[in-house]
Amino acid sequence: MKILLTSSSRHGSTDEVASLVAERLRAAGLEVDVTRPELVDGVEGYDAFVLGSAIYMTHWTQEMTDFTQRFVAQLSTKPVWAFSVGLSGLPQGKVSDPHRIGPVLLSLDVENHVTFPGRFDPTRLSLRERTIARLGGASEGDYVDAQAVRAWADTICAELAPASA
User: Fold this and answer.
1) Residues 6 or more apart from 137 whose CB is under 8 A from it?
2) Where are the domains of the chain?
3) What is the Cα–Cα distance from 153 to 74, expressed in whole angstroms?
4) How many helices (H) and strands (E) does the chain have?
5) End-to-end alpha-carbon separation of the chain, Å?
6) Alpha carbon separation from 80 to 6, 74, 77, 111, 122 (Å, rounded)
7) Over the stretch 111-154, which tens digit does the pLDDT of each residue have?
8) Is 67 helix (H, G, I), strand (E, B) or coil?
9) Is the predicted pLDDT of residue 78 greater than 50, yes or no?
10) Domain 2-164 in CATH: superfamily?
11) pLDDT (mean) for 58-65
């Protein structure tokens, strides 16, 4: 079973989540290619997809949005899992309404979509990003929950690993 895991990160949290997911999938014996969405030229030969994006103002990155638009026909014929990473402007990294995150998913019928909290380190952000985050009430800190990410990846493994045997 060959899986494409593509993620779009701005400041590293989404890449960290993608690495944890890839690690679990590989440990289950699945073949995983990890790449950025803007570097994908084609999706032929993949049996399933895991898509991840940083979220800003409840939207996925333009790179991931473009990826889903370019390959929507192919993605619609295979199993797709998706994750979003971000603070969503709320204290302690909590997400108010995960169904509002990543509306690009509306064009795909995903097996599962989950939102993970990310990291807010003002020193890694532009002035504009810091201002928006502060106005939204974001609290500085690292809220990436590796255990939750691994547990979610294990649900993907449970669905795909038997098919690869």
Assistant:
1) 89, 90, 91
2) 2-164
3) 22
4) 5, 8
5) 9
6) 11, 10, 9, 6, 33
7) 988 888 776 666 776 777 767 666 666 666 666 788 999 999 99
8) helix
9) yes
10) Flavodoxin domain (3.40.50.360)
11) 85
